[in-house]
Task: structure prediction
Amino acid sequence: MTQTHFSAAERTASDYYDSADADCFYEEVWGGEDIHIGLYASETEAIAPASQRTVNALIALIGTFPRGATVVDLGSGYGGAARRLAKEFGAHVEAINISSVENARHRQLNLSAGLQDHIQVHDASFEDVPLPSGCADVVWSQDAILHSGNRQQVLQEAARLLKPGGVMVLTDPMAADGVETDSLSAILDRIHLPDMGSPDRYRAWASQAGLVREVWQDQTAMLIRHYSRVREELLRREQELKTKISPEYLQRMAAGLGHWIDGGRQGRLSWGLMRFRKPLQEA
Result:
């Protein structure tokens, strides 16, 4: 299903992820199928297995995974998590993503894996999901909601989509609680947004939407390590990457990664795993 009416923030994100430079960089350096922050066993661990460990941790956070469950993946990227859930648990995944380039590769990877009948990829916004209310056992999102200009609306959509008793699991790069927006200007300029979420903001937004936060696992050290590892790989492979990616993009990426690393080390950023639940009965 295709949705064409995107907000300014969504168009900015779509234009970025649809660019040839970004597509190549995320495939070559960031982890390929899983373009998310990883959970690292060591400072020098490769990016891809660390990213897979985050998927493992979110699966564990769900608890007992119902066989054949319907999962709505908000900001599904290249679909690494969607394929994992479909293959291992027989899940039916509704993948919501605004990048047509990512979605095209996602569909091809699903076809190659023989999972095209288990995963429906929607060219759509997670602020206005083209699915019926109460269709999801699980809502899943990894490091995507920060790109929304209306994160509270995304939580409201998650609550609408979930069946009573269903859970939402997510990760997202955030501001640390109590941090002023003006101290994050370098990062906000990078993502072209006026502010960021925070752990307390997500808890409040979820509560307003009718969801209860059950788990918050602070893993901010992994944000710092992940962006450090990506920057290390960029610099190590810079000459090779320049044959595929514009030097200007690589320069901007290296600088942007540095801002994320500095923000994390200075205590201005936060990252971790959250679980929210839709109560069986409304209060």
Remarks:
- Residues 231 and 254 are 6 Å apart (CA to CA).
- The first helix runs from residue 8 to 17.
- Residues 8-277 form a domain with the Rossmann fold fold (CATH 3.40.50.150).
